[in-house]
Design a protein that fits this description.
- The complex is a heterodimer of chains A (416) and B (604).
- Chain A has one domain: Alkaline Phosphatase, subunit A (3-Layer(aba) Sandwich).
- Helix content of chain A is 35%, strand content 13%.
- Chain A contains twelve helices and twelve strands.
- In chain A, a hairpin with a 2-residue loop joins β3 and β4.
- Chain B is mainly α and 604 residues long.
- Chain B is 54% helix and 3% strand.
- Chain B is built from 28 helices and six strands.
- A two-stranded antiparallel sheet of chain B has the order 1-2.
- Classes of the chains: A alpha/beta (416), B mainly alpha (604).
- Chains A and B meet through α5, β7, α7 and α8 of A and α12, α20, α27 and α28 of B.
Chain lengths: 416, 604
């Protein structure tokens, strides 16, 4: 048990972290009724039967080119459409008849062969948007072409997890993702654990804690700020210590991309944080490969595959492989035909990826046609919300997916 | 009798002097509820010191109490007119950017990637103005690759210097709205040096924004769509007749002018066609007629052989355009939620003025809605605004360079000249997470108690890898040995090309960049809080707290929080009396750190 602080102290921190015995007000919490509502929501749900399970969502921002990620080398149309960019059959890492991975996804080859990886072909939604911001917004809310204000993970937390237990959701990043926006839960958002602290002398820090109490006030923005400040007080110590005491020999690949953040998630899981939903982004529209795609995409996929593979290996190392699953997505795929700048433009359907011991490894669903196109773009074969429903019900054990996703979606049988 | 009269005059005199410097008990109180969404102008009777403070916080970067008092004594019409029609104000005290001079002949036009640079070198025998070394020479392309990395790094450093120059303008300009609007347009028409890779383009874009910031919207639109930095950022050089690139057309419609839902995908593509051939010859706009699609296009219901400027005119003919732009300005200057009625009304103002921005701005800043409760002290300060306005309220004349301005704002999510993407910065509550909230306070502790010893200047930052290369070379190792790092595969990739070593190129490029760029002089903030509180006649703990709160905060503190601050100062001084002495300055700085770390301080 390398480097973990003394258990009783950790217990103490966890108590403070989860606000046991303390009722801080959050801007959107309906104080008196929330406890009743939460109890009601938990009734009849089976999230309790998988109470230790964790979901890590990895977002690839910018529109990852699915066709060059899960390469349909068995389809001649692929090579006709991409004379320069198509991955040659003999370079692709073969995983099934007619399909292979991009050669730099060596990390995924390992996971696939070990039975820890599933791919769902052709995910998308009707009337797809080709705008980064709009489409990503739809994947975040799970309500395409709608004006939903909350995130799908936020709504899942509201429905299935007791809001009195804090930090059910952790979002690694410099700002909160819409995907985790919740009514009753306040997601914990931070990027660098080491910097997640207050500077100053003890007297200064004590005064700051006193000044950072949440409060009710007609100025809604001030109320939000005060609640956030209180959240920071409660969480920062634990997060910092969990991260500082975490040491792993596992290689997450080159630091860029998601490897670093997945390692931070691993540190929190190893420290026993009761978070159930983690959100991690490969940010900055990095996958938006309009120009000179080949080398850039190669690097992006390498960093991603190495990071996810490292994370799963680390989960195995700390004995949590049974409890942790990873879901990876992007806001759209890219056009079938390459463009004039050795890149690809915004597209539609795209593969989604699921990782973990619980998955039925393999390629699921049906690959979209590369000839029967919609204005040059693939027609989706699986609504992405079916994959959401699948992780919600089959993995996390919350049956009422319709309440979360606002519509009924059949699950896919990806989890054994 | 005479002596009593004199005494009376003396007392009255000292009272009035004191009034300017102690806390004014005159408050405006919350505005009447009816002011919400009321765009009619406030009158002189409505004008108070607090409302003047609100105006300068939004239309600029805040002001010191003395300045605010001066504005409060004027009529609101005059204040707003002067604020908006700022060309009348002499601003020569802020100078132009002093370039280091990093671009050499042959570097222009700069290739889009290292791969391309190398390809050109093989093809032509030279690249970036440097000849390939003779056959048989080891690493014959090394000088070229070094130059490539030099350019990336030197432009990055010049951009840091550019950010500091602009921050100083924001702090010292006598036309605060000019700088605030430049910042707004930079976020609205976002492009970033990380892709453009040319500080000269960013500088010219910045100067163009400043020049056209409150002029005519059409002039500004044409300016930005012909701007080299923007053309590069949106890959419009790739937008050619045979392969129109939609990126440009999409961002123009979605982000710059109309917003999603007001056009179709077809309109995006047709717009893209109209802008084919719009490119740059390094620093100037260039129209490539042979790459331009001059054919017939149908755009927003109109048909014709439209070129780019005609598309702009069609866009401006749509009512939604004025509403979209007016709403964005409103959200930046007033508050997040805009009612439909206000949006339509402000859109009308903009349209009816022929798209002149000044009438719109004046209307907004004089409106009752601007001073209504939902608009008042409800905006979360952007990182740049947070830092600049703090310096301004501290009375600083120059932006301290220790801690580094760019690092400070970058750590909070905003780097000048480097927006996260073409949508700019989302702003509002997205600035705030538990971590960034703590960081906002921590940054000011570093300003008040600088860590001089631990300071590492970002304009001379070198990665650990590059530093190791340097150390090993100094020890006499050759390039292959000095750049050996990590595993075999990593080394293979670095030294794979016999004709150059990538890792060495990165190192050498950095060394050359350091040599060629001016060093940012490092100076900590010159604050004297002792003088500040003395000038305010604050000689007790309560008076000091009240003065700092009045000077820095835009929201009242709750009584219990004020008590925490008073107790803190008393505890530090050991007494309620505030007198100059050895420990006073340090105690005051700690107190100010607490004030600047409050949730209240994030509101402007």
């Amino acid at each position: 048990m390398a480097g973990i602080c003394s258990c009783s102290r950790r217990e103490f921190l966890i108590r403070g972290l989860y606000g046991i015995g303390v009722g801080a007000s959050l801007p959107m919490v309906l104080n008196r009724t929330s406890a009743a509502l939460a109890a009601q929501a938990l009734e009849g749900t089976s999230v309790e039967k998988h109470r230790d399970r964790i979901l890590v969502v990895v977002e690839l921002s910018g529109g990852n080119d699915g066709l060059n990620t899960v390469v349909p080398f068995g389809d001649a149309a692929y090579y006709r459409a991409r004379p320069n960019l198509a991955i040659p059959e003999k370079q692709a890492i073969k995983v099934a008849a007619g399909f292979g991975f991009h050669p730099s996804m060596v990390g995924f080859e390992r996971l696939y062969k070990d039975g820890l990886m599933a791919v769902v072909h052709g995910c998308g939604y009707d009337h797809p948007s080709l705008s980064h911001f709009s489409s990503m917004g739809f994947w975040h809310t799970g309500v395409p072409n709608g004006g939903e204000p909350l995130g799908w993970l936020g709504r899942l937390a509201d429905a299935g997890y007791d809001p009195a237990v804090r930090n059910t959701i952790v979002n690694l990043g410099s700002s909160q993702s819409l995907a985790v926006r919740s009514r009753r839960h306040a997601p914990l958002v931070f990027d660098d654990p080491a910097r997640f602290r207050r500077d100053g002398t003890d007297t200064e820090k004590e005064a700051l804690v006193a000044l950072s109490q949440s409060r009710t006030t007609p100025n809604a923005t001030l109320e939000f700020l005060a609640a956030t400040a209180q959240n920071a007080t409660e969480s920062s110590d634990f997060v910092r210590q969990a991260s500082a005491s975490y040491h792993t020999p596992v290689d997450y690949g080159i630091g860029g991309g998601v490897g670093g953040n997945l390692q931070r998630v691993a540190a929190l899981i190893a420290a026993g944080m009761r978070t159930r939903l983690y959100y991690v982004t490969y940010a900055g529209n990095s996958f938006d490969t309009h120009v000179q795609q080949a080398d850039l995409h190669s690097r992006l996929l390498m960093y991603t595959a190495d990071g996810v593979r490292g994370f799963l290996e680390d989960m195995k190392r700390i004995g949590r492989a049974d409890d942790v699953a990873v879901m990876m997505f992007t806001e759209f795929g890219r056009r079938v035909e390459e463009n004039g700048s050795l890149g690809t433009d915004h597209g539609t359907a795209t593969p989604m990826f699921l990782f973990g011991k619980g998955v039925k490894a393999g390629l699921h669903g049906q690959h979209p046609s590369l000839t029967d196109l919609d204005d040059g773009n693939m027609k989706m074969t699986t609504d992405f919300r079916r994959v959401y429903a699948t992780v919600i019900k089959e993995w996390l054990g919350y049956d009422d997916t319709q309440a979360v996703l606002k519509q009924r979606f059949d699950t896919l049988g990806v989890f054994a | 009798m005479r002596s009593r009269a004199l005494l009376l005059i003396f007392i009255l005199g000292s009272l009035s002097v004191g009034r300017a410097q102690t806390i004014s008990t005159e408050t405006s109180g919350p505005a009447p509820a009816a002011w919400v969404d009321d765009l009619s102008a406030i009158t002189a009777a409505d004008w108070t010191r607090d409302r003047a403070a609100h105006l300068v916080e939004r239309a600029g970067f805040g002001e010191t109490p003395d300045q605010i008092a001066r504005l409060a004594a004027m009529k609101p019409d005059d204040v707003v007119n002067r604020l908006v029609a700022y060309e009348a104000i002499d601003n020569r005290s802020v100078g132009p950017f002093e370039e280091s001079g990093i671009w050499d002949p042959g570097m222009d036009p700069f290739p889009p990637s290292r791969a391309e640079t190398v390809r050109i070198a093989y093809e032509r025998g030279e690249s970036l103005g440097i000849k390939v070394l003779p056959k048989g020479t080891p690493r014959r392309l090394q000088p070229i690759v070094d130059k490539f990395f030099y350019s990336l790094i030197a432009n990055g450093i010049e951009t840091q210097r550019l950010g500091l120059w602009w921050a100083n303008r924001m702090l010292a300009s006598k036309r605060p709205l000019e700088e605030k609007l430049t910042l707004f347009w930079h976020g609205h028409f976002a492009s970033g040096e990380n892709k453009v890779r040319d500080y000269r383009m960013m500088l010219r874009q910045n100067e163009m924004f400043r020049d056209r910031a409150s002029g005519n919207l059409r002039t500004l639109l044409v300016g930005i769509l012909k701007d080299p930095a923007m053309l590069v950022y949106l890959d419009n050089g790739e937008n050619v007749k045979s392969h129109p690139n939609e990126n440009f057309g999409r961002e123009l419609l979605e982000l710059f002018t109309m917003g999603v839902g007001n056009y179709t995908e077809r309109d995006v593509r047709e717009a893209a066609r109209a802008f084919t051939g719009w490119s740059n010859d390094v620093l100037v706009f260039k129209f490539n007629a042979d790459l331009h699609d001059a054919g017939e296009k149908t755009f927003l219901g109109r048909t014709g052989n439209f070129n780019g400027e005609e598309i702009i005119d069609i866009i401006l003919a749509q009512p939604v355009t004025a509403e979209f732009v007016a709403a964005k300005l409103y959200r930046f200057f007033v508050r997040e939620e805009i009612s439909d009625a206000v949006k339509k009304e402000l859109g009308r103002t903009l349209r009816e003025s022929g798209y002149e921005l000044k009438p719109l701005l004046k209307r907004i800043f004089l409106s009752k809605d601007f001073y209504s409760q939902p608009s008042y002290a409800t905006q979360i300060k952007s990182p740049v605004h947070l830092v600049v306005s703090t310096y301004k309220k501290m009375g600083l004349r120059e932006v301290p360079t220790m801690p580094d301005f760019g690092r400070m704002t970058g750590s909070l999510g905003q780097s000048l000249f480097d927006p996260p993407n073409v949508a700019g910065w989302a702003g509002g509550r997205t600035w705030i997470t538990p971590a960034t909230l703590l960081q906002r306070g921590n940054l000011f502790r570093e300003v008040l108690f600088p860590d001089v010893k631990g300071f590492r200047p970002p304009d001379r930052a070198m990665s650990a890898t590059d530093a190791r290369v340097g150390e090993r070379l100094a020890k006499g190792m050759n390039i292959t040995e000095a750049t050996r790092e990590g595993d075999a595969e990593s080394n293979m990739m670095v030294d794979r090309e016999e004709d150059y070593n990538t890792r060495y190129g990165g190192y050498k490029g950095a060394i050359d960049a350091f040599e060629r760029t001016k060093l940012i002089p490092r100076q900590q903030a010159t604050i004297n809080l002792t003088t500040m509180v003395q000038a305010a006649r604050a000689d007790t703990a309560e008076k000091v707290v009240d003065h700092l709160v009045d000077r820095f905060l835009r929201v009242r503190l709750a009584a219990k929080d004020r008590a925490v601050l008073v107790e803190f100062l008393r505890g530090k001084l050991g007494t309620n009396d505030v007198r100059p002495g050895e420990t006073l300055e340090s105690a005051l700085r700690e107190l100010l750190y607490l004030v600047l770390s409050t949730p209240e301080y994030q509101l402007g």
